[in-house]
Specification:
Protein name: Zinc finger BED domain-containing protein RICESLEEPER 2-like
Helix content: 40-55%
Subunit structure: Homodimer.
Oligomer: single chain
Number of helices: 29
Shape: globular
Number of strands: 12
Strand content: 5-15%
Subcellular location: Nucleus
Largest sheet: 5 strands, antiparallel
Biased composition (Polar residues): 50-70
Structural class: alpha+beta
Strand order of the largest sheet: 1-2-3-4-5
GO molecular function: DNA binding; protein dimerization activity; zinc ion binding
Radius of gyration: 40 Å
């Protein structure tokens, strides 16, 4: 009887050959008892081969070992020489898996076995060693199902419904104890969410470090390919869009829109359409609806694109559309107004649909002021760039600061030429070190040499090398700072997307007009001239009362700290008497028309007498009433007086609101949306108006982009995507993020200064070349 070598425990053999179809007899078979049950076939083979040191010698000792393949080591179970003709072909365990038939992940958990008399392949589980049919006709389903049932498979839960405890971060801070259960689909959804929110490339899931991390954290998670991830991201976008569509169908308030143009690095044009609205809980929301390609910037093309987007979202109730001041947008709004009137979604026949972007007008006004001082700004910018270009130069500049005894924890910062707010910050910081720059001229010859053109034909003039800052340059910078400070603060206030901006618009715009008028009267000729040029640009957009959208003044009326009397006073301050009177009459008329419109919406089957009609009725004389004598005349006069007295006790919501005391303007705890939420039960119609009007955005861009005088350009990653995926990523990111954190340029500068300070401390600059 031949002795069996290179096999695992006899129980495995009994388990396999207990099937009547297997004719190999087990009687008399001797088994190597040193082999353990827990070791898989491959490990057994490796152990045996290493212990013998010569596989050929082992196979030679066993006359029934298959020598047909010298490349792949095999484990053979055979019979004695005398019984060879009665036994089936030998059973072999292959340690190398065919790449063609073993593509599934399940092969990582099995070793392939060649069948005996049936010539079918079997696979042995690496954990319990059970043999399972694995021929191509069988597929891998049975192998996968076995792993889910295998008691020794280390990644199986004893109970699929068993949850684990974890601490989850809460929005307000702290952590909460929650339960968690592994789910492959949920993990894939969270992976897609992470890629969208954090702006990660799709190939991120194929990076070695991330794969190792996920395998360590959760071995059961099957990492999808980047193509699968792309589909998951788009599916997540589609699911979120479906939910948002359903939400808009139930939204009772109107929606305010903004449009903004973007360009990819391939010069493809995109339109960003954003919705702004206030929900039933009086929370302001901003949702990017579409980020779609457009063929051109023609007004009708943009209008048709917006129309198509609104039809897709089933949105018809639109109050305003905020756009920049391009002439093509006038055509766009005319087209949209006609379409929205047909949809019966406008207010007051869409007369106040068009809202001009305040940030864009402010940018144009600032650029007009910067033109006069371009040379001075360029020289100061060049000086700042010089001292920041190397550690050695920075150290020499710091030495000048110490000698001049200038105390400041901050350093100079370089601006971004297309972002005028960074120019303001650069000038503000540089002025603190004016004396240090002047001292640098005497101690650093390269400073003067590098910044001064050698001749009029010096090619460096084209690169804006115009010399070191002069005394006059510093004086101009001092004069410019107050202007930029005003526009800087106003732009920040009017470009927010997470708070109401409509009620601050009038104060900022009218305030800028008054300040520019004051600067025009200055004795400083340069200051007066600059203010005059900026006022001309300002008046082009806001000097004409016909171009002002009255709804933005209604928003101030609906601020309980201001109301109508304040708006009327502000108009008198900002305009000449003729234009002021015209604008005040228009504001009051639109206010009452809005109230009548919303009253009719609240009670569509009830006849509503407008405020204008009531005023006409009050003017009716009793002579118009037919009387039959003196007594009748007296009773008629009394009845008219009684009706007037009764009307004082039945005033409208609007009358009561305007008559009540104003809220304290300087109260730090006042929030306009909270006030309307708490008083909506008293002013139901006015609350509906406020909910729509206070959602109007006065800027088309967020605060981090409002200062830019350049175009809006997509980054290289987004530009490399198809338009369909660009929209999915950008819209999905806007919908999924819990909150938008705007870029704070000042914080970035402070952080950069700290990093530079650390580098200076760590590195000696003695041997650093200039």
């Amino acid at each position: 009887m031949a002795k069996v070598h290179d096999v695992f425990h006899v129980s495995m053999l009994k388990k396999y050959y207990s099937d009547p179809s297997h004719v190999l007899p087990l009687e008399g078979i001797e088994v190597d008892e040193a082999l353990t049950y827990e070791e898989g076939p491959v490990k057994i083979l490796e152990r045996e081969m290493s212990s013998t040191g010569d596989n050929t010698a082992t196979t030679a000792a066993s006359p029934n070992v298959d020598h047909s393949s010298s490349m792949d080591p095999k484990i053979v179970v055979g019979a004695s020489e005398t019984e060879t003709s009665q036994v089936p072909p030998p059973l072999t365990f292959e340690t190398k898996v065919s790449t063609k038939s073993s593509r599934s992940w399940v092969w990582e958990h099995y070793a392939v076995v060649t069948g005996t008399e049936t010539k079918d392949k079997k696979a042995a589980c690496n954990y319990c060693h059970q043999l399972i049919a694995c021929a191509s006709k069988n597929g891998t389903t049975s192998l996968s199902n076995h792993l889910h049932r295998c008691k020794k498979y280390p990644y199986n839960n004893t109970d699929k419904r068993q949850k684990t405890l974890e601490f989850k971060a809460k929005e307000g801070g702290g952590k909460a104890l929650t339960t968690h259960m592994f789910d492959q689909e949920s993990c894939r959804r969270m992976l897609a969410r992470m890629v969208i929110i954090d702006e990660l490339p799709f190939k991120f899931v194929e990076r070695e470090g991330f794969l190792d991390f996920c395998q360590f954290m959760q071995p059961r998670f099957e990492m999808p390919s980047r193509r699968t991830l792309t589909r998951d991201c788009h599916k997540l976008f589609s699911d979120e869009k479906k939910s948002l569509k359903a939400y808009f169908e139930t939204l009772s308030s109107r929606i305010c829109l903004t449009t903004d143009a973007w360009t990819s690095i391939q010069n493809l044009n995109y339109l960003c359409l954003t919705a702004h609205f206030i929900d039933d809980k009086w929370k302001l929301h901003k949702k990017i609806l579409n980020f779609c390609p457009i063929t051109s910037h023609a007004g009708e093309v943009i209008g048709r694109t917006v129309e198509k987007c609104l039809l897709d979202w089933k949105i018809s109730k639109v109050l305003t559309v905020t756009v920049d001041n391009a002439s093509s947008n006038d055509t766009c709004l005319q087209y949209l107004r006609r379409r929205l009137i047909n949809w019966k979604g406008t207010v007051l026949n869409g007369e106040y649909l068009h809202m001009r972007c305040a940030a864009h007008v402010l940018n144009l006004t600032v650029r007009e002021g910067l033109k006069d001082l371009e040379d001075s700004i360029v020289r100061i910018r060049s000086a700042v760039r010089y001292v920041r270009s190397s550690l050695a130069r920075a150290q020499r500049f710091k030495s000048c600061i110490e000698k001049e005894r200038i105390e400041s924890k901050s350093l100079v910062c370089l601006d971004v030429e297309t972002r005028w707010n960074s120019t303001f910050l650069m000038l503000e910081a540089a002025l603190k070190f004016q004396k240090a720059f002047e001292l640098l001229e005497t101690v650093d010859s390269k400073y003067v040499e590098e910044l001064t053109p050698q001749s009029e034909n010096d090619t460096r003039r084209s690169s804006k090398v115009r010399g070191v800052p002069t005394e006059m340059d510093w004086e101009y910078a001092k004069d410019l700072l107050p202007f930029l400070q005003i526009f800087y603060d106003s732009t920040v206030k009017m470009s927010g997307s997470r708070y109401v901006t409509g009620n601050v618009y009038m104060n900022e715009i009218f305030g800028i007009s008054g300040l520019l008028n004051s600067f025009q009267e200055s004795d400083d000729f340069g200051l007066s001239t600059m203010a005059g040029n900026m006022k001309k640009k300002y008046d082009k957009y806001w000097g004409n009362v016909e171009r002002i959208n009255i709804l933005i003044l209604i928003a101030v009326v609906l601020d309980p700290r201001h109301k109508l009397s304040y708006v009327q006073w502000a108009i008198d301050e900002a305009y000449d008497p003729k234009n002021a009177e015209m604008l005040k009459v228009k504001v009051e008329k639109v206010l009452h028309s809005l109230f009548d419109f919303y009253s009719a919406e609240k009670s569509p089957h009830k006849e509503v007498i407008s405020q204008n009609q009531l005023r006409e009725m009050d003017k009716m004389d009793v002579d118009a009433i037919t009387v039959k004598g003196a007594s009748d005349y007296m009773h008629a006069k009394y009845s008219q007086k009684a009706d007037t007295l009764d009307s004082t006790h039945n005033k409208t919501e609007l009358d009561i609101y305007l008559m009540e005391m104003k809220e304290d303007f300087h109260s730090p705890n006042f929030h306009i949306l909270d006030w309307w939420r708490d008083n909506a039960h008293r002013f139901q119609i006015l609350a509906a108006i406020a909910r729509d009007v206070l959602a109007i955005p006065v800027s088309t861009v967020a605060s981090e982009s409002a200062f830019s005088t350049g175009g809006r350009v997509l980054d290289s990653f987004r530009s490399s995507l198809t338009p369909r995926m660009v929209e999915a990523i950008i819209c999905g990111q806007d919908w999924l993020r819990k909150g938008i954190q705007p870029i704070d340029l000042e914080e970035s500068i402070t952080e950069l200064e700290e990093m530079e300070s650390g580098l200076t401390m760590e590195h000696s600059i003695i041997n650093i070349e200039d």
